[in-house]
Amino acid sequence: MTQQQISKEETRRAAQDFYQTHIRPIVETEENIGKMLILDVATGDYEIDDMNNSLALNKRMLAKHPGNRLTGFRIGYDAVQAFGGYRPMPSKR
Amino acid sequence: MMTGTITNKRAHLERPVRGAGGQGMVEFTVDTGYTAYLTLPPSYCEALQLPFVRDEEAYMANGSLVWTEIYSVLLDWDGEERAVEVIAVESEPLIGMTLLDGYDLLMEVRENGVVRIQKSQHREVSPNDNATV
Q1: A39, A90, B21, B30: most buried, per Cβ within 10 A?
Q2: With helix as H, strand as E and coil as C, how does B58-117 read?
Q3: pLDDT digit of tens for each residue in chain B (133 aa)?
Q4: Taking CA atoms, what residue in A is nearest to B56?
């Protein structure tokens, strides 16, 4: 099945499951907390960089996996960005 | 330096944006409670034919989590065109704190008051920016 045949919702769910199960236990170290991680769930490949470099990081990942739907995570948190002044707490998942 | 206006209890700043589908002037609200770069309504992202970047979750004001789509837009920012990430959400277009990083924001908070955004004059606060003292 190609990436295009999988729905947006399925990709997000698979990415979240893959991150929590296979990636988070490895990457959630003190020096990585707060960094950006971008995952290509179709291949399981991911890279980490500072939040300020997220667009460049995304370009690197897309160059390796053209056409794939990528998913972003902020290590140690449940979400990457916040609206309305919400102050993120460490992940509760 | 860029200047905007306080209207209806909001700090507004107009900026030109560009994508493969065209360009236009957008009135953004400066939102210091928003952590990222920009938001645009999904209809704008579609009309400008912005390239899709990725999915990621965001915290709403009450702490709930929502999946969002990130696109890339060309933004005229302080006389320089920059490719920046934009979250597609159904709200008025927002400018967030990551875009404002390294800039000074001054607001004369009264109706029709002036909003000024300029590169930071405080070298000790942002040692890596190109501010001229």
Answers
A1: A39
A2: EECCCCCEEEEEEEEEEEEECCEEEEEEEEECCCCCEECHHHHCCEEEEECCCCCCEEEE
A3: 999 999 999 999 999 999 999 999 999 999 999 999 999 999 999 999 999 999 999 999 999 999 999 999 999 999 999 999 999 999 999 999 999 999 999 999 999 999 999 999 876 655 555 544 4
A4: A72
What φ, ψ does residue B98 adopt, rounded to 5°?
Answer: -70, -40
What is the least distance, in Å, from the CA of A73 to any CA of chain B? 6
Q: Residue B128 half-sphere exposure, CB side, CA atoms within 13 Å?
A: 1
Evaluate whether ipTM surpasses 0.85. yes
Q: What is the pTM of this model?
A: 0.90
Q: Where are the domains of chain A?
A: 3-74
Across the interface, of B52, B57, B83, the residue whose CB is closest to A55 is: B83
| Contact assessment for residue A36 and residue A79, using Cβ atoms and an 8 Å cutoff | no
> What residue type is A64 in one-letter code?
K
For residue A56, which phi and psi values (nearest 5 degrees)?
Answer: -65, -40
A-B CB pairs within 8 A amount to 80
